[in-house]
Structure formats: C-alpha cells, structure tokens
C-alpha cells in the first residue's frame, strides 16, 4: 500500500493496511533479533514511537557501522573461498566479477554457510517467473472447464516457480556495497562482530530502510515522525 504523502503530513501507522505493517514488523524482528508483544504495539501509531520501542528492546552502543561490518564479513567470506588480495574487493566491486555465472549458485551457498545466514541474493530471470505465474493464473481459470487439466497446470506452474527460485542465477544487486547494505538491513545483528553492541544512531535508519523498502515510502517522510 502506498500512502498519499501529499495529504498526510505525519505518517500514522494506523493509516496502512494491517497486513502490510505486520509484514514490516516481522522484518524488524528478524533483523534485530527481537520479539514484539501485542501489548507493546497497542499504543504505537507513529514511526518515531516504533523506533523508540525498537531502541528500548536492543542493547545500545554508540560506535560501529553495521554496513561497514557487513562489508568486512562479506570480504572475509569471499576471500576464504577464493583467496584474493583484500584491496581488490571494494564496495564498488561488481558481484558478477566475483561470482561467475557458471558456478554462482555453489559459490553463493558456500559464502552463506560461512556467514551463517541466507543473503537472498539470487533470483530467476523475470520472464521465467512471469511465464509460470501466468500458467498458474490460466490453470485456475481452467477449473471451470476441466479440473484435471487445471490441476496438472497448477502442479507444473508451482513446481516450475520453485525450481526457478532454487536454480535462478540472476543477481538482485550489482555491487559488494549494495549487498552489504542489503544484508545489514535484513540481518542487522548477525552482521555485527558483537551482536550485543548496537549503535544507537543506526536503529532508526535501519527501521526506516525496512519501511521504505516494503511500503514504498520516500525516506524523507519518515524523518522525525
């Protein structure tokens, strides 16, 4: 859901579809390794009050950049699998150069094992996803004509989508820097050298990143709201 920001000077979380907000809350819980209680969320209606709640649930510190630490973890994991001079791996380094297409799935899997979490980096070609998605929609429509054919079509489309997702080799981001930002946003605590120390100044930014990514908000409208 995209809010009409021209007529909404202050972002009120109650203006969004509850399912959309719930999805973002799950992402925040996963990123910060916390758990919201229903009683805690009862009076939370603004972005700022949500950030205060997250801050209160995470141990604080004032130093360290999670994105930078994510970059270092990535660089170390890549070098462990494919020894390369560290100075050659920079934030602007293209992932396609580090992860050759012919063995990209295996290389990414090895790095994920080293990191201890999934980067969710690979995806199938868009036309493959759309083809199976259209087949699924068409199969649903065929139930009114032939349930047998419709069922077969659904099985093929669902299996195709699963296989496409499993064996997709397309990169969702282009550079190491982009990937570091992505995993820092989605696996905040796991990217830090010491998960018990969290920079107080980062929490609001990470929560804002999750909101803008999932609810299609302009970041400026979440400042001090």
TrEMBL record:
Membrane-spanning segments: 128-161
Alphabetically ordered keywords of this record: Membrane, Transmembrane, Transmembrane helix
Gene3D superfamilies: ACP-like
Cited InterPro entries: ACP-like_sf
Name under which the protein is recorded: Uncharacterized protein
Source organism per UniProt: Mucilaginibacter terrenus
């Amino acid at each position: 859901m995209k809010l009409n920001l021209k007529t909404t000077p202050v972002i009120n979380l109650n203006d969004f579809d509850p399912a959309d907000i719930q999805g973002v809350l799950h992402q925040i819980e996963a990123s910060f390794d916390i758990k919201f209680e229903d009683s805690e969320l009862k009076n939370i209606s603004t972005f700022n009050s949500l950030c205060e709640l997250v801050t209160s649930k995470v141990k604080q510190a004032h130093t360290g950049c999670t994105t930078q630490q994510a970059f270092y973890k990535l660089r170390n994991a890549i070098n462990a699998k494919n020894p390369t001079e560290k100075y050659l791996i920079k934030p602007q380094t293209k992932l396609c150069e580090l992860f050759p297409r012919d063995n990209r799935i295996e290389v990414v899997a090895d790095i994920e094992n080293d990191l201890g979490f999934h980067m969710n980096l690979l995806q199938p070609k868009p036309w493959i996803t759309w083809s199976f998605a259209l087949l699924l929609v068409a199969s649903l429509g065929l139930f009114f004509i032939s349930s047998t054919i419709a069922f077969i079509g659904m099985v093929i489309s669902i299996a195709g989508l699963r296989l496409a997702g499993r064996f997709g080799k397309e990169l969702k981001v282009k550079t190491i820097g982009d990937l570091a930002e992505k995993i820092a946003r989605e696996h905040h605590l796991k990217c830090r050298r010491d998960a018990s120390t969290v920079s107080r100044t980062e929490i609001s930014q990470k929560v804002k990143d999750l909101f803008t990514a999932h609810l299609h908000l302009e970041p400026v409208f979440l400042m001090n709201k």
